[in-house]
Design a protein that fits this description.
Elements: E1 31-37, E2 43-46, E3 52-55, E4 64-68, E5 80-85, E6 95-99, E7 107-112, E8 124-130, E9 141-146, E10 152-154, E11 161-163, E12 173-176
Antiparallel strand pairs: 1-4, 1-12, 2-3, 4-5, 5-8, 6-7, 8-9, 9-12, 10-11
Length: about 180
């Protein structure tokens, strides 16, 4: 049973995530709010320029909404997600993680719903490193791989980056449902 009974209660119109169905993320997708902690114990956050980095301090910019794009009951190993900044309550903050083609370090949160041709660039697949159950749970460790370019999210540098290799602790993130501030 999913620890979030309301998560994705309403399935998206397109359960197969057809990339030809327009560019906007499906408005009826529900998500779960988490913080992501890297291998050094720091939390993923974003800057004013919408670049992704890490910080030791929790705050408004360390929460992300994981939007399940597969239509399944809950996010699990192999689920495609979109990662939206914040907890989903700020209508002015509709930015998503995305990977750009130009270089491996081009991972940022500068993509909004209206950006054309970016849907697959905003999709990431969850790969279980260590999960307590089938559904994503507090304390699980995961890796995230971009759907469009097959690059893995990494916290190895000052900014989060997207590399071709899946190896290394820098690509493992701990899911935190209720961070202690």
């Amino acid at each position: 049973m999913c620890p979030f009974p309301a998560a994705n209660k309403d399935k998206a119109d397109d359960e197969n995530d057809d990339l030809d169905d327009g560019d906007e993320l499906d408005p009826d997708d529900l998500g779960i709010v988490v913080a992501l902690q890297d291998y050094q114990g720091e939390f993923v956050t974003w800057t004013d320029e919408l670049l992704l980095t890490t910080t030791k301090d929790l705050g408004d910019t360390t929460y992300f909404t994981l939007l399940n794009k597969d239509g399944s009951e809950c996010p699990k190993d192999g689920t495609k997600i979109a990662v939206q900044l914040g907890d989903g309550t700020d209508e002015d903050l509709e930015n998503y993680w995305r990977v750009k083609k130009d270089k491996s370090s081009a991972l940022n949160a500068q993509s909004g719903d209206e950006d054309s041709g970016t849907k697959a660039k905003k999709r990431f697949t969850i790969y279980a490193e260590d999960m307590a159950s089938e559904c994503l749970s507090d304390g699980d460790t995961i890796r995230l791989k971009n759907k469009e370019y097959g690059r893995w999210v990494s916290s190895a540098g000052e900014m989060l980056e997207a590399y071709n290799s899946s190896g290394g602790d820098d690509k493992v993130f701990t899911v935190v449902f209720e961070p202690k501030e």
